[in-house]
Inverse folding.
């Protein structure tokens, strides 16, 4: 009966989400600004996960078998299935209302009402399943039924229900968590409990990392941590070891000591392409776009670990973020300016659907105005909940947008703290900020 545990877990995730939507809608009604990104991410989660996976799996397996085994089942299942069928329409309506509110065509109070109505429906649906359907299932379903249901809910090889898509939903859920305003958060155990950004789970944990070029030790035992949704800056002068560090993390630079854990998994020995599949995607130093290839083909290269069917859609998202790339999509990448090539390098990394984006000196060699543009892009990605490890010589700009920073000197971390505290640190100011 593993599926029952899964279903209940999924219910508690949905319940927490619904409670958070309620609270944020309440804040909005009391005058707080509209949290468009949060609501969009929450509706995406419901659309992609609840409406397209959780409900169909219930309909096709759990509910069908229950109807076979129990005559009383129809009474409760009819209403629940009708709810499932109406789910996508209700969600579309809510999206339209959200868009209208974002454009100022719908009062915040009306949007809040609509959101509350929706979450009330979702909660009562979950309650019915927990109070009536799951207990009935425990009573009447046979071992062979459970075999089918467990497989449907736990099948790791299925292209739709498989491990890969599960990882995506986890990401989506964490994105919602990091977009929820500080006052709400999405606690792990109780609905709506307070959760600061620092309480996010650790995504990357690196301990005692060493790496050498011949006899020269370029990294001398680096330990570093990045939490989900965090932007962490690694700053340091020329030759400090920043690039070596990122290359060691993406697996193209051998390490001689230390360990790397990503999302709880030890990836110290994992090949670089496998790390990329886990979601560690890098925009390399010096951009390294393929000059003779078209912009589109450069982007396609970033998606080589991804299923083909999602490439076109992902590329459109990149084009929406960088309209200039769309305009020039068929031209050789070599015809782009330095700033545009940097956008392309970031876009290419995004095509790998990163769960953690590594950026190696994205501002290098760019005119000040373009530097600002690149940092604006990074800020946007951060606001969408992306986890970012940003390596920069331009310490001020990097620390200004980072949650936390590490200062690297000749292969060792000498200082660490919040971005804010490092900017004001005298040592850092003297070494990097020119005063
Ligand atoms: N291929 C190499 N062979 C030998 N030594 C190298 C090699 N690449 C880097 N190093 C040395 O390793 C140390 C760290 O270099 P790395 O490129 O990682 O620094 P960085 O912080 O990225 O510098 P920059 O700001 O110039 O990009 C330096 O002393 C450098 O000379
Ligand atoms: Mg470098």
């Amino acid at each position: 009966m593993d599926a029952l545990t899964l279903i209940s877990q999924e219910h508690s995730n949905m319940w927490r989400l619904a409670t958070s939507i309620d609270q944020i809608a309440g804040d909005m009604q009391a005058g707080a600004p509209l949290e468009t990104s949060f609501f969009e991410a929450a509706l995406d989660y419901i659309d992609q996960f609840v409406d397209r996976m959780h409900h169909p799996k219930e309909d096709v397996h759990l509910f069908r078998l229950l109807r076979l085994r129990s005559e009383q089942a129809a009474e409760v299942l009819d209403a629940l299935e009708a709810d499932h069928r109406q789910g996508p329409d209700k969600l579309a309506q809510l999206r339209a209302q959200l868009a209208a509110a974002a454009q100022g065509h719908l009062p915040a109070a009306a949007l809040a009402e609509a959101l509350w109505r929706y979450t009330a429906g979702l909660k009562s649906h979950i309650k019915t399943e927990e109070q009536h359907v799951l207990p009935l299932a425990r009573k009447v379903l046979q071992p062979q039924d459970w075999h089918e249901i467990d497989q449907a809910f736990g099948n790791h090889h299925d292209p739709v229900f498989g491990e890969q898509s599960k990882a995506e939903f986890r990401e989506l859920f964490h994105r919602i968590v990091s977009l929820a305003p500080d006052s709400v958060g999405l606690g792990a155990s109780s609905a709506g409990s307070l959760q600061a950004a620092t309480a996010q789970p650790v995504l990357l944990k690196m301990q005692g990392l060493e790496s050498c070029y011949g006899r020269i030790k370029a990294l001398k035992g680096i330990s570093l941590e990045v939490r989900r949704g965090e932007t962490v800056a690694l700053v340091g002068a020329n030759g400090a070891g920043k690039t070596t560090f990122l290359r060691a993390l993406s697996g193209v630079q051998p390490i001689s000591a230390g360990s790397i854990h990503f999302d709880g998994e030890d990836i110290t020995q994992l090949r670089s392409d496998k790390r990329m599949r886990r979601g560690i995607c890098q925009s390399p130093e010096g951009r390294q776009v393929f000059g003779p290839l078209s912009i589109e083909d450069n982007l396609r290269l970033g998606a080589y670990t991804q299923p083909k069917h999602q490439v076109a859609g992902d590329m459109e998202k990149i084009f929406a973020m960088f309209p200039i790339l769309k305009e020039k999509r068929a031209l050789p990448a070599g015809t782009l300016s330095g700033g545009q090539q940097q956008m392309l390098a970031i876009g290419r990394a995004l095509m790998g659907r990163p769960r953690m984006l590594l950026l190696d000196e994205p501002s290098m060699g760019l005119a000040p105005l373009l530097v600002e543009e690149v940092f604006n892009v990074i800020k946007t990605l951060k606001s969408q909940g992306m986890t970012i490890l940003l390596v920069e010589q331009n310490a001020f700009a990097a620390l200004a947008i980072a949650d936390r920073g590490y200062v690297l000197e000749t292969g060792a971390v000498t200082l660490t703290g919040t971005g804010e505290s490092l900017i004001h640190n005298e040592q850092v100011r003297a070494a990097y900020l020119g005063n």
About this structure: Residues 36 and 99 are 8 Å apart (CA to CA). The radius of gyration is 24 Å. Residues 185-197 have pLDDT under 50 and may be disordered. The longest strand covers residues 202-213.
